[in-house]
Each structure stands twice: as structure tokens, then as C-alpha cells.
């Protein structure tokens, strides 16, 4: 619990019990200087309160619920129990008492001494016991296993089975027939080639394997300053052990988890660990029961920003907080992506249809008197005919093309399947700092002359005359003067050509914001500082809560120096007796103090960090140029100063985020903020970007508006909630689920990395497809667990990038909207592509079935089927990936993963039983047309197969009594197969055009997809090439057709177009009607 936690727990306990809500009492103020929470009425007692709180703490006094655990979890195998227990332990909140016990007890516990440190013998013993201070890498999946998964997993397995069956059928043919065609052999080879090529391609695309642990290792500092045997030595961090006394200073990385013994102006950057956007003060005092929020702990791999500290090592290696996060992120198993589940569902569906048809016709063959081996060949043939050989390549290429398109829009996809997952997303759990905000503190408001002024850093005019007149008493100029002088931050060298707001700086984030603000307003702060040299300084510390500096004032007759001070507003105000108003010094009256408190409350309520500013001119007679200022004895005034004003800062939202959140809401996607930052700040940013929409209130907002206690508010009146991490810690899975269901707009604040993970799992248990965005180490477990993890490419840590499935190269949350649209588009287009591809299955399967049932010469050969699936259909199928979105793509809700499958019964019905039957009719019409043209009337072909295929019979009679030799019969058969093939190509013209849209008319959709237009031309030209190219009559058994034989299929193609246009018209005309329910796929 943070500084606010215990002071408000009792008054809020009832509210928490009713749903985990947390907000802040109306009188609560933020001390933006150090990130703690203060009450204006109890400022003077704050240190005593902390002291009393610490006395009341006991080690491990709080219990932790693992939200992900279910009371009725199903039993799992024993070999997995150990890993599950380990993972559940990692999911628990950090439990330790080293921050609440006394330093003496810590020293006793680890047998160490603050002055002498450990002895070498002790260190050697501890190192042998605990191991090196490094992260143990987890077991990784060998590359050959990953390669095999791509080669044999999912859809590829179906093709391998098909290839095996082809070889089996070929073997049976060799054993039972004298003259064996090599069709099944060729088909088996082609199937193997397809699966191997696509498997290698997928492996190549995904070869950037997850190296999360290696990335964590980069965070380890190489050396640490340690006290051993009473001497200070530099040791490799791997040799640190618990009990070591270490010294750290600004610029260092913390080498292990340490308990602070003493500190001077020490601050650490915890943003990558906790999400707090500003450096956090560290001191020897315990200020919170929560180890992640107390000031007397510093954590492994976080950065020391400024000051110095001495501490004792309490955890090393895997036992550190960072070590737990590292193992949690790397040990989590990412579940199957939605598209992987859809492909698995499709495989089951196709396999079921293939096996059903195969068995039915195997039995039918027996009934018709075929030999059992012949029946087995028929069984295999029917199963293989159901396998869409080109579909795996089509899906892979479509996903790759979309990934390339997304990369051009600054979305880098690491996993091809993640392309579609983002489009399926129903909930986005977004980090705040660096994702929704710029991760750059910026001056937002200033209060002076009794008025709050909005500061727009992009449009600040300069007031250069400040440099010319140091005694100018205009209030804003006085405020700028203090901001420029009482400031230790500086611009890095060689950046004059860069815009001021983009320049890199050294120093504290808040001071950097003030420096840029002053530079924008007065220009060349460095020159102004050089002119007003610093002669004395009291750095900020958590006890004084102010920073003071004294500067020389050259060429002034009455004053020698200027004293400037900034810090916690109430502390600064308490040191002032006057205030500068419109250029005049006036006494600080009670009315002005009320005005000050109102402004402070207003700015603090916006989630902004507020600082107070004051100054004092030091008279030359009292403080001559030779005067020596002593900061230890304070031989200068620190009371009775002149208050000038307030400046508030905030990490502002990215400009494009509000529109992006609005688009997500329109698309039915819920955006939830999950941050480690402060609840007030989180709520303010959530309102600014629209996560908490305008007019939506929390229970506390309702209570404040109506002037009643929180407990009296009807929960149904609130549509938003801010859940504090301390409240989340008290929830079980059911309470979390209730909160998620009850409040459409949620902000989770002060969350730990483990809690972020449990929040993601909570949404997933409700059947949500969850996307997580983040940039810090603390986000990595949630990124790994999410259905799709999205990391920031610029500001994101290496760990977050490795854990994520997608990286936003421009760090722009708005790019997610582009990704969602592309994901939905590729799902729609994959459906269209599959519908187009599956439609030709029926005209490929029926010839074989009719051949078995009615004994006619085979209308379509195996090689010809390959020419369709891997030849004429490939480019058109892929071209559908380029199809533009239909008008409603970002207006509809996320797809229902249960009902809206990639391949569902409605798609199968349309492709097989409607369009497919028309296509088969076209093929058979052309087949019988050419047979009749050559003397064989349709009814004379029935049960002619045995004579037709016999090489010994050379006098088969046609309908006109003409004799046909075996060779002539086969030429006619292959010519008919070629005509059947051309007919399929012609009806596929219409199928391709109708596949462009599932709901809109073609007139609405248009023909602007030039890749698809090229596909139409390509398949036609390829068909013509295969028909008329010399030599292919031997290789592919394709024979040239008369021009008139191209036309029989055209009426069927027109029929398909008109039929589907009518179907889509009825869907639009009668939404929700029978036609939509039965045919809208």
C-alpha cells in the first residue's frame, strides 16, 4: 500500500468490499516532488505518521491471492505439477519483510556489518550456497524442434497424410495393375514439396526466436562497489552475495535487490519496473508495506538517477524481483493464436468430410462389386481429392503480405499468425507510460497572479528581455527565473539544430520539463545561468522537500544575490510571508492561501505533478560580494520568503491516442488501462484519452457530485472504476470477474507485473481475445501471456520487444488501430480466399465419385487437379489478400470466436452445395458436350469404364457405331479432361469476382483491386498455355481445344454471378433473415 493507503483504508473498506473500487478523499493532495501522497491538513505530521506505520508492520503481514487459481481446477499430470507450482509461485505478489525490520535485524540476519561488510570466507560460503548473482536461463526449444513444428504442425500434417496416402495408392496400383499411371506418385511428390517449401518459409519468417532471458542479462551491471573485509573493492556483479554492503551513485545500475542503509539525495528510475514515469526518492525509512512502493528498497537492474546510497544486498540472481519477472515472462506458455485454432478447426472439418465421403464410397464400391484393393484406392483417392493442396501456401502468403503491409505502417509482426490475432482482439490492456503518453514530463499549467494558465509548449512566445533585466518583477518572469536557476538539469552538447522539446537532457524528469519550458520562453538558459553563477545550494531531499540555490546578481546597485527555491507547494508556501501579485509584493492573507489551496487541488486533481516556487533578494549591505554562504548552518534566510507561483507538469498523452481509443470503441474493442503509476495520474490520463469517456463517473465521482458517502452510492450509477493494486491484491478470481463484467470502463493503477499478468488472464477466462501494449520490464509477463503482445519499438525495453508478438516502430498507440483494421481485413480476406479455393473442390471430387458410381470415363485427372489447385487458382486466391475492406469493417463488433469461424458450416454450404455444384455442372456439361461431339452420347458412357480403360480392347463402339482404339479413347478422355479443366477456370472467373465481398454488391465494391484483375488474366493465360503449349500433351496430358469448346461454361459463370448477387441483395435487404443466417459466412 502506498503513502495514501493506510490513511484512507478504513473509510474505503466498505467500498472496496463492494467491488474493489479505489479513489482518493477529496482533501488528498499529491506531493509531486517525490511522488508520495499528502493530506493538506496533516502535512506537518507526515513523518510521524510514517514512523508509527512502520512500527505497526509485521513481516509478511499480508497474504496474497493468486487470482488465476481456480478452486475447482482440473487435475493435471504429475510431471507438469512441478512447473505449474513454480509458475503459480512466480505469479504471487512479492513477499518480503526486509524493508520493515530494523537495519540491526537485517545485519544480524545476514551476519554482516555496515562498516566492515562480509568477510571473504562468508562471501565464498554464500556464493557456493546461493550461486552467482545472475539469471538462470530457462530451457529453450531447440531450433530443429521449431523447424519440425512448422513442417509437421497444423495444416501441414493434413498434407503429409495426403502424400502418404498417395504413395500407398501408387503402391497398390503397382501390385495390382499391369499398366500403372504415375499420377498418384506425382501428387505425393507435389504435396511433399508444397508442405516443405511453406514450412521452410514459415520457419524463416519466425526464426527470430524468443530470447527473453538473454535480454534480461543485458540489464546486469558488470561491476559493483562492495565493502568486503572492511575494504572497498570493485567486484563483478556475479560475485555479489546476500549480506554484501554496496555503494551506488547516480548513473549506476543497481547490482542486486538492496535495503538502503543511508542515502543522500538518492533517486532511482523505476519506470521499467513499476511504470512510474518520474524518478523515485530512496532513503533509509520504510514508507509502505508494499515492497515495490517503499523508499528503503532499490531493485536489481533499475537505474540510479542522482545522489548516493549505501545498502545491504538482500536478494541476488533469480531471487530478485527482476529475476522473478524474468522467469515469469520466459516460463509462460503462449496459447494458440485465434488463427491457429481456426486452421485446426478447418482441418477437423475437412478431415471429417473427407473421411466420411471416403468410407461411404468405399462401402459403395463393395456393393457395386469392386475388388477390395480397388475400393481402397478409391477411398484414398476421395480423401486426397478433398485436400486443398494450394491452401496452405495461400494462407502463408496472404499473412506474409499483410505483415509486410503492416510493417510499412510501422507495425512489425514477429509471428505471422499475430497478423490476424490483432483483428480478433476484443480487449486491449494498455500500459500508460510511454504507450498512451509520451514518457516525457512537460509543463502543463502555471498558477500566478491568482489565475491558472494553460501552457502550450508548442506555441510559447519568447520573452528575451528577462536576460536584460534581472530585477524585472513581472510574476511570470520571476517564475521563469526560478525555473531556470533552481534547476540542475542541462542540455546535452551538440543539439542546437534540434527542436527544444526533442533535445536530450541530463537530470530529473521534472527539472528537464522546467528547463525546456524556460528555454522556450527566455532562450539560452545556459547563458543566463553563466551570468548568474551559483554560489550556494541545498539539494532536494525527502525531509526538507525543497531545493534551494543562491545566485550572484551582477551589475546591481542594491542586491548582491538572489535566493531561489522550489519544492512541495505546501512546504514552499509555509516558508513565505509575501506573494508576488502583478509585480507587487503583498502579504500572504488567508484569502490568498485559500486561493492557493484551490489551485493546488485543481492541478493535483488533474493528475499533474505540482511544484511551488519562491525567491528572495539578498541585500548587498547584509550579504556583500565577500560573504560566504554556509548551507549547513543556513546563514541566510529560509523563512519569510516571497511566494511567486505554481508550475504543474504531466507526462502528456500522445496526440493521436484519443482518436485511436475512439476508433477502438466504435469497433467494439474495450480499452483498459493497466499501469504501475499513481491512481490519480492514471485516472487523469484515462479521461484525457477517452478510456474513461466524457460524462462517465466512478462511484467516488458520483459520491462527490451528490455530496454523500461512497457507501451510499448505488453501484449501478457508476460505469467506470479505478482499481488500486492493493485492492486487486485482496480480490479472488470471481471478484475480478465481477469487476470486469460490471464496469465497462476500467483503470488498474499501482499494479505489479504479476497483477498485470493476472488481469490479462482474468479477461481471457471470460473468452476475450486480449491484446496487451507495453514498453517496460514490468509489462513483459503480460505481453507474453496475452493473445497478442504489442511492444513499443523506440521507448520499449528489449525485454518487452522480445516478449511481444508485434512491435510498434513509431511507439504510436494509434498504429494499433491500423493493426486492428489490417487484422480484421486479413480475416475477412482469408475467408474469401478459402471460399474461393474450396469452391473448386466439388468439381474436383464429383468426377471421381461419378467415375466410381456410374463407371464413366474419368472426367478429371489427378494431374489436372494439381494444375487447378497449384496453378490457375493460386494467384487469384492470393490476390484476395489485397482486397479493400468492406464499408463496415471498423463499425462492427469483434468477431465471436465461437460462432464466427474462419471456415464454418455456412461457408462449406455455399462453397460445396451451391457455387461448387454449379461449377461441377459446368464441367460435366463441357465434358458431355465434347464426348457427344465425338460420337459418345451421355447415356452411352455409363458403365463403360472397364472397357474404356482396357488396353486389350481396341474396338469400343460409340453411339454411331464407330470403333475406337485404346489410344484414341485416351486422347478423347484427356481432351475432355482439358475441357473440364478450362470450364472450371471460366466459372472461377465469376467465383473470384463474387468472393471480393461477403455482403456488399460488386457494384459497391468495385474492381479497383488490380492484383485481382491481374489474377483473372493470369489464370486465363495459364489455362490457355497448358492447353496449347506443345509437349504438354505428354507431360500433363493436356490437349488443345477448339475455340467453341471454351464457351459451354460461360452461361454457368454468369449464373454464379447472378445467383450470388441476388443472395447478397437479400442479405442486405433482410438483415438477420433466413438467407443471412444460412449463407452469410
From TrEMBL:
Cation-transporting P-type ATPase N-terminal domain location: 97-171
Chief place of localization: membrane
Membrane spanning residue stretches: 151-172, 184-204, 346-370, 376-404, 834-854, 860-882, 903-930, 971-990, 1010-1031, 1043-1059
Record flagged with keyword Phosphoprotein: yes
Topology in the lipid bilayer: Multi-pass membrane protein
Any GO CC annotation of this UniProt entry: plasma membrane protein complex
Highest taxon, organism lineage: Eukaryota
Biased composition (Polar residues): 57-75
Gene3D superfamilies in UniProt: Calcium-transporting ATPase, cytoplasmic domain N, Calcium-transporting ATPase, cytoplasmic transduction domain A, Calcium-transporting ATPase, transmembrane domain, HAD superfamily/HAD-like
Subcellular location: Cell membrane
Stretches of the chain forming a coiled coil according to its record: none
Alphabetically ordered keywords of this record: ATP-binding, Cell membrane, Ion transport, Membrane, Metal-binding, Nucleotide-binding, Phosphoprotein, Potassium, Potassium transport, Sodium, Sodium transport, Sodium/potassium transport, Translocase, Transmembrane, Transmembrane helix, Transport
Record-level Gene Ontology MF annotations: ATP binding; ATP hydrolysis activity; metal ion binding; P-type sodium:potassium-exchanging transporter activity
Keyword tRNA-binding: no
Oligomeric and partner information: The sodium/potassium-transporting ATPase is composed of a catalytic alpha subunit, an auxiliary non-catalytic beta subunit and an additional regulatory subunit.
Function: This is the catalytic component of the active enzyme, which catalyzes the hydrolysis of ATP coupled with the exchange of sodium and potassium ions across the plasma membrane. This action creates the electrochemical gradient of sodium and potassium ions, providing the energy for active transport of various nutrients.
Protein name: Sodium/potassium-transporting ATPase subunit alpha
Species annotation: Ditylenchus destructor
Amino acid at each position: 500500500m502506498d503513502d495514501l493507503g493506510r490513511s484512507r483504508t478504513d473509510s474505503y473498506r466498505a467500498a472496496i468490499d463492494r467491488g474493489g473500487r479505489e479513489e482518493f478523499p477529496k482533501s488528498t493532495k499529491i506531493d509531486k516532488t517525490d511522488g508520495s501522497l499528502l493530506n493538506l491538513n496533516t502535512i506537518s505530521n507526515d513523518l510521524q505518521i510514517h514512523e508509527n506505520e512502520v512500527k505497526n508492520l509485521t513481516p509478511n503481514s499480508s497474504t496474497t491471492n493468486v487470482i488465476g487459481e481456480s478452486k475447482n481446477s482440473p487435475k493435471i499430470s504429475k510431471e507438469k505439477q512441478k512447473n505449474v507450482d513454480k509458475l503459480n509461485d512466480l505469479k504471487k505478489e512479492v513477499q518480503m519483510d526486509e524493508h520493515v525490520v530494523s537495519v540491526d535485524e537485517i545485519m544480524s540476519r545476514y551476519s554482516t556489518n555496515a562498516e566492515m561488510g562480509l568477510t571473504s570466507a562468508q562471501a565464498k560460503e554464500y556464493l557456493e550456497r546461493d550461486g552467482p548473482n545472475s539469471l538462470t536461463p530457462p530451457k529453450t526449444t531447440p531450433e530443429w524442434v521449431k523447424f519440425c513444428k512448422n513442417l509437421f504442425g497444423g495444416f501441414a500434417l493434413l498434407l503429409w497424410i495426403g502424400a502418404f496416402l498417395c504413395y500407398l495408392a501408387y503402391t497398390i496400383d503397382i501390385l495390382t495393375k499391369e499398366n500403372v499411371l504415375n499420377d498418384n506418385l506425382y501428387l505425393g511428390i507435389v504435396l511433399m514439396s508444397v508442405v516443405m517449401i511453406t514450412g521452410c518459409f514459415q520457419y524463416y519468417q519466425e526464426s527470430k526466436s524468443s530470447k527473453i532471458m538473454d535480454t534480461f542479462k543485458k540489464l546486469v551491471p558488470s561491476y559493483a562497489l562492495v565493502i568486503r573485509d572492511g575494504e572497498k573493492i570493485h567486484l563483478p556483479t556475479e560475485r555479489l552475495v546476500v549480506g554484501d554492503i554496496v555503494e551506488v551513485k547516480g548513473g549506476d545500475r543497481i547490482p542486486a535487490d538492496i535495503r538502503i542503509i543511508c542515502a543522500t539525495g538518492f533517486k532511482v528510475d523505476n519506470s521499467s519496473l513499476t511504470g512510474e514515469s518520474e524518478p523515485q526518492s530512496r532513503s533509509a525509512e520504510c514508507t509502505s508495506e508494499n515492497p515495490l512502493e517503499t523508499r528503503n528498497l532499490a531493485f536489481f537492474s533499475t537505474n540510479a538517477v542522482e545522489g548516493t546510497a549505501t545498502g545491504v544486498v538482500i536478494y541476488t540472481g533469480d531471487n530478485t524481483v527482476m529475476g522473478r519477472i524474468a522467469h515469469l515472462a520466459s516460463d509462460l506458455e503462449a496459447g494458440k493464436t485465434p488463427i491457429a485454432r481456426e486452421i485446426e478447426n478447418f482441418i477437423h472439418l475437412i478431415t471429417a468430410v473427407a473421411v466420411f465421403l471416403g468410407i461411404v464410397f468405399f462401402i459403395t464400391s463393395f456393393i457395386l462389386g469392386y475388388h477390395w484393393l480397388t475400393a481402397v484406392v478409391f477411398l484414398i483417392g476421395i480423401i486426397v481429392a478433398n485436400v486443398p493442396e494450394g491452401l496452405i501456401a495461400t494462407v502463408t502468403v496472404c499473412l506474409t503480405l499483410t505483415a509486410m503491409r503492416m510493417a510499412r505502417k510501422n507495425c512489425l509482426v514477429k509471428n505471422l499468425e499475430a497478423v490476424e490475432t490483432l483483428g480478433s482482439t476484443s480487449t486491449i490492456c494498455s500500459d500508460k507510460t510511454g504507450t498512451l503518453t509520451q514518457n516525457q514530463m512537460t509543463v502543463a499549467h502555471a498558477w500566478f497572479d491568482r489565475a491558472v494558465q494553460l501552457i502550450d509548449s508548442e506555441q510559447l512566445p519568447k520573452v528575451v528581455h528577462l536576460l536584460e533585466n534581472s530585477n524585472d518583477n513581472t510574476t511570470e518572469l520571476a517564475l521563469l527565473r526560478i525555473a531556470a536557476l533552481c534547476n540542475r538539469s542541462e542540455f546535452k552538447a551538440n543539439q542546437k539544430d534540434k527542436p527544444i522539446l526533442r533535445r536530450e537532457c541530463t537530470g530529473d524528469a521534472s527539472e528537464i520539463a522546467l528547463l525546456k519550458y524556460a528555454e522556450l520562453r527566455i532562450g539560452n538558459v545556459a547563458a543566463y545561468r553563466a551570468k548568474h553563477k551559483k554560489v550556494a545550494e541545498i539539494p532536494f531531499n525527502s525531509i526538507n522537500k525543497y531545493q534551494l540555490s543562491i545566485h550572484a546578481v551582477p551589475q546591481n546597485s542594491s542586491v548582491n544575490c538572489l535566493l531561489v527555491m522550489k519544492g512541495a507547494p505546501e512546504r514552499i508556501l509555509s516558508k513565505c510571508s509575501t506573494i508576488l501579485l502583478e509585480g507587487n509584493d503583498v502579504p500572504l492573507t488567508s484569502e490568498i492561501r485559500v486561493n492557493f489551496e484551490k489551485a493546488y487541488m485543481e492541478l493535483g486533481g488533474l493528475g499533474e505533478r505540482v511544484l511551488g516556487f519562491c525567491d528572495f533578494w539578498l541585500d548587498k549591505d547584509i550579504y556583500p560580494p565577500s560573504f560566504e554562504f554556509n548551507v549547513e548552518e543556513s546563514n541566510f534566510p529560509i523563512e519569510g520568503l516571497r511566494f511567486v507561483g505554481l508550475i504543474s507538469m504531466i507526462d502528456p498523452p500522445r496526440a493521436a491516442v484519443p482518436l485511436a481509443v475512439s476508433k477502438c470503441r466504435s469497433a467494439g474493442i474495450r480499452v483498459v488501462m493497466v499501469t504501475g503509476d499513481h491512481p490519480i495520474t492514471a485516472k487523469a490520463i484515462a479521461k484525457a484519452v477517452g478510456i474513461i469517456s466524457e460524462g462517465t463517473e466512478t462511484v467516488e465521482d458520483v459520491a462527490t457530485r451528490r455530496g454523500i458517502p461512497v457507501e451510499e452510492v448505488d453501484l449501478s450509477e457508476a460505469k467506470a472504476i479505478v482499481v488500486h493494486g492493493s485492492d486487486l491484491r485482496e480480490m479472488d478470481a470471481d471478484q475480478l470477474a465481477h469487476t470486469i463484467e460490471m464496469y465497462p470502463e476500467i483503470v488498474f493503477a499501482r499494479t505489479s507485473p504479476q497483477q498485470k499478468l493476472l488481469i490479462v488472464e482474468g479477461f481471457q477466462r471470460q473468452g476475450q481475445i486480449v491484446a496487451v501494449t507495453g514498453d517496460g520490464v514490468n509489462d513483459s509477463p503480460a505481453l507474453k501471456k496475452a493473445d497478442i503482445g504489442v511492444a513499443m519499438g523506440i521507448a520499449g525495453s528489449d525485454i518487452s520487444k522480445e516478449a511481444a508478438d508485434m512491435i510498434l516502430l513509431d511507439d504510436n498507440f494509434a498504429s494499433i488501430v491500423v493493426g486492428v483494421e489490417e487484422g480484421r481485413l486479413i480475416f475477412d480476406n482469408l475467408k474469401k480466399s478459402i471460399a474461393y479455393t474450396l469452391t473448386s473442390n466439388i468439381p474436383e471430387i464429383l468426377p471421381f465419385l461419378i467415375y466410381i458410381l456410374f463407371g464413366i470415363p474419368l472426367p478429371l485427372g489427378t494431374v489436372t487437379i494439381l494444375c487447378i489447385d497449384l496453378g490457375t487458382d493460386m494467384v487469384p486466391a492470393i490476390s484476395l489478400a489485397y482486397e479493400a475492406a468492406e464499408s463496415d469493417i471498423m463499425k462492427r463488433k469483434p468477431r465471436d470466436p465461437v460462432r464466427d469461424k474462419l471456415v464454418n458450416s455456412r461457408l462449406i454450404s455455399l462453397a460445396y452445395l451451391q457455387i461448387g455444384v454449379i461449377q461441377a455442372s459446368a464441367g460435366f456439361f463441357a465434358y458431355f458436350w465434347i464426348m457427344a461431339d465425338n460420337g459418345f452420347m451421355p447415356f452411352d458412357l455409363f458403365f463403360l469404364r472397364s472397357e474404356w480403360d482396357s488396353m486389350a480392347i481396341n474396338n469400343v463402339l460409340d453411339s454411331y457405331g464407330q470403333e475406337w482404339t485404346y489410344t484414341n479413347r485416351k486422347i478423347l478422355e484427356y481432351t475432355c479432361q482439358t475441357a473440364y479443366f478450362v470450364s472450371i477456370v471460366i466459372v472461377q472467373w465469376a467465383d473470384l469476382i463474387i468472393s471480393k465481398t461477403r455482403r456488399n454488391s460488386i457494384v459497391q465494391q468495385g474492381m479497383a483491386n488490380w492484383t485481382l484483375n491481374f489474377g483473372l488474366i493470369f489464370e486465363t493465360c495459364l489455362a490457355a498455355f497448358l492447353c496449347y503449349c506443345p509437349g504438354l500433351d505428354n507431360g500433363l496430358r493436356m490437349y488443345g481445344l477448339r475455340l467453341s469448346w471454351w464457351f459451354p461454361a460461360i452461361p454457368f459463370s454468369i449464373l454464379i454471378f447472378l445467383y450470388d448477387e441476388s443472395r447478397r441483395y437479400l442479405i442486405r435487404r433482410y438483415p438477420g433473415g433466413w438467407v443471412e443466417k444460412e449463407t452469410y459466412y
